[in-house]
Amino acid sequence: MDSKLKETRLDGGVAYDGRFLKVAKDRIQLPDGKITDREFIKHPGAVVILPLFDDGRVLLERQFRYPLGREFIEFPAGKIDPGEDHLECAKRELVEETGYTATSWQFVCTIHNAIAYSDEHLDIYLARGLTAGEAKLDDGEFLEIFTSTVPEMLSMVKAGQITDVKTIIGAFWLEKILDGSWQPAA
Question: Which Pfam families has this protein been placed in (predicted)?
């Protein structure tokens, strides 16, 4: 990293402490020596699961998202609990949200979806060898699951029907994985 661009934290702390999110407000020194504030959301991190059936279809969810007041098409995902192993979180979330289990798991990549105002990261996992079971949704969680092909997903991205960033990135990864040009980390 180029140290000429580094911003240095001087002090600060939590400005808001919610059940799910925290907002930090820090006083920082800019590279030119000036002092300013930075406010950002502190997030525990999350996982995203790319559930891939043997026939090339993928498992997706439709879920209402309150901040934007509408339904979104997404890959299964969920927040990492304190001290929880990220892969174990992915396995837990897949069962909770969809009822499916997988026999094969591969780490794909880590993404940072809101770098200007959040420290959130999402670890993406590819899940194969899917077996149906009973979903165990969290209290207050409502969603529908359905399947799609990757080309159908990409058409939905192009048409603006899928706008969720983690799902778009997952669809692009799956396209590359299925055509053999990219492989997840070993």
Answer: NUDIX (PF00293)
Q: What is the pLDDT of residues 62-86, one digit of tens each?
A: 999 999 999 999 999 999 999 999 9
Indicate the pTM of the whole model: 0.94
- In total, the chain counts a number of residues equal to 186
pLDDT score, position 1: 52
Residue 136 shares a structural domain with residue 153: yes
- Taking the CA atoms of residue 113, residue 131, residue 138 and residue 156 in that order, the dihedral angle to the nearest 10 degrees is 40
> Per the domain annotation, does 18 fall within a domain?
yes
Whether 184 is in a domain gets the answer: no
Q: Are residues 173 and 123 in the same domain?
A: yes
Give kind and range of the element (H or E) at residue 151.
helix 150-158
C-alpha dist (Å) from residue 150 to 67, 73, 87, 154, 186: 27, 13, 23, 6, 22
